[in-house]
């Protein structure tokens, strides 16, 4: 972006360039499937979807807890379930040698998954 | 032998003085240094250059050349920028396309007439902002002194409490961003601006907006952004433009 297109900015141009760079850094979120890495590529795709669903379930659960519609016993059970889900997810990530960063996909207007 | 096709850069309405357009087109080059020329159906005019489809690579130099043509033309005309890589096989095909889509093109040209686009990005240190929001929230719900200690809770309940705290914080952050957007919209409405917002684009970019505004209102817009910066000192407002109306043309060429 040429400097004369910046009409107002209290920060530095370097900072701005860095921030814009983050938006263009889409390469990492691409699924790179080749004959040699079909297993790990597929694992990445599947785990990304599982993580997305897990996050959505967690969000909805927190809305219900916050709304006060659950009993103490239900909250206990929910906590155990969510905790086990998170632990299982960590195990799977470790098994396939994946990090949170690998499972992060851009959801367009919803922003990044993680 | 490779077939030459036509790359369309933009569509504009040429109500008079085609000599002026010809002179502008002579002074600029398209992708791969190609000459530019116009194809018109009545006043509706497509700006094109010859291109080999196989030579068209989506790289930064081609994208900059493409945007450069649109940018130069946008300084003189209200136009509809075409998507990079809009190629048709012949002048006849372009003429048919212009005729077929004439009402839609005219409608969109009218919408962007004498208007330009500005980009507004709002950055913040989201961790710092979250800390600030927690402090405000705690101050509002401060517990009275000598309250009895919380009973012992299970590890699962503690897990839910932690998640709930993070969830509430996210909600507070979103509510804050919504209030900033409402403030911006409220003030820009007075300039008859049309705005589109995206929230929480990255950890630091909390708002990414595009604004369609009359050409002549650039300075009042800058002044308004200065006011926002004073109103929200914890945020960093960045205003760019003027740009061709890339985000306000809503038509699919048939």
Description of the molecule:
Chain A has helices spanning 13-24, 38-67, 72-95; one strand at 6-9. By secondary structure, chain A is mainly alpha-helical. Chain A has a domain at 36-114. The radius of gyration of chain A is 20 Å and the shape is flat. The two termini of chain A are 28 Å apart. The mean pLDDT of chain A is 81. The radius of gyration of chain B is 25 Å and the shape is elongated. Chain B folds into 2 domains: 4-113, Alpha-Beta Plaits (2-Layer Sandwich); 116-140 and 154-243, Alpha-Beta Plaits (2-Layer Sandwich), CATH 3.30.70. The mean pLDDT of chain B is 89. In chain B, strands 1, 2, 3, 4 and 5 form a 5-stranded antiparallel sheet that branches. A 4-stranded antiparallel sheet of chain B has the order 7-8-6-9, with helices on one face. The relative contact order of chain B is 0.16. Chain B contains 7 helices and 9 strands. In chain B, a hairpin with a 5-residue loop joins strand 7 and strand 8 (205-214). In chain B, helix 5 (126-140) packs across helix 6. Chain B is of the alpha+beta class and 254 residues long. Classes of the chains: A mainly alpha (114), B alpha+beta (254).
